[in-house]
Amino acid sequence: MSEKQKVHANVKDEKLIQLRREQIVKGAISLFKEKGFHRTTTREIAKLAGFSIGTLYEYIRSKEDILYLVCDQIYDEVQEKIQNVLNLKQVTTETIRLGIAAYFRIMDEMQDEVLVLYQEAKSLSKDALPYVLKKELKMVALFEQLIKEYTHYIGIELQVHQIKLLAHNLFVQGQMWGFRRWALHKEYSLQQYTELQTEFFIQTLQSFAIANK
């Protein structure tokens, strides 16, 4: 199953549900990052969110519901931001560079959220996990489209499996800035990391083009 999961709430006011769940998610992200999903209690999440454990259970049924809401919200936020920064209508070398830089900045700003996704998504239910992973593939598809447009612009032909791998690589390179920060931040500034990864990306495109001739 890869459809959006319905999280039960006892409250009927949709605006209030949204508000309270945003507070729950914010508190949960902080705690999951610090202690991990399994060591965090719902009581701790409720306290950090600013209300009682009883109130918390008016909006969710279990800690697993909270993890699902956390992953769902993070993926939605990341996808929206990526869509806003990638120029897919007029792709040139300059817009490629600007798009990669903007994407890496998003990953820098959302390091904690990305880290939580990579550490805790495996704890999602067997029904919820395919749904959130499908969202990630939709984001990778944006980079596939970007690469296709760029290859047309520079006049090279790549095979579908090459485009897909390049898109996955580029997507993970942005995330890597967060989940490998303990090492990367000692060696590179965000600008240095971005410039190097962008050059590697462009060089890889060129090597694929030569290999395909």
Describe this structure in words.
The chain is mostly helical and 213 residues long. The chain contains 10 helices and no strands. Helix 1 crosses helix 2, helix 4 runs antiparallel to helix 5 and helix 5 packs parallel to helix 8. The mean pLDDT is 89.
- Helices and strands, in order, run as HHHHHHHHHH
Question: What would you call the shape?
Answer: elongated
SS-derived structural category: mainly alpha
- Relative strand content: under 5%
N/C terminus separation:
42 Å
Number of strands: 0
Low-confidence stretches: none
Relative helix content: over 70%
Main sheet specs: none
* Rounded average pLDDT: 89
Give Rg in angstroms: 20 Å
Count of alpha and pi helical runs = 10
Fill in the keyword field for this structure.
mainly alpha
Short description:
By secondary structure, the protein is mainly α.
Give the topology, please.
Layout (H helix, E strand, L loop, with lengths): L13 H22 L6 H8 L3 H4 L6 H23 L7 H17 L1 H10 L7 H27 L5 H20 L1 H7 L2 H22 L2
Helix pairs in contact: 1-2, 1-4, 1-6, 4-5, 4-6, 4-7, 5-8, 5-10, 6-8, 7-8, 8-9, 8-10
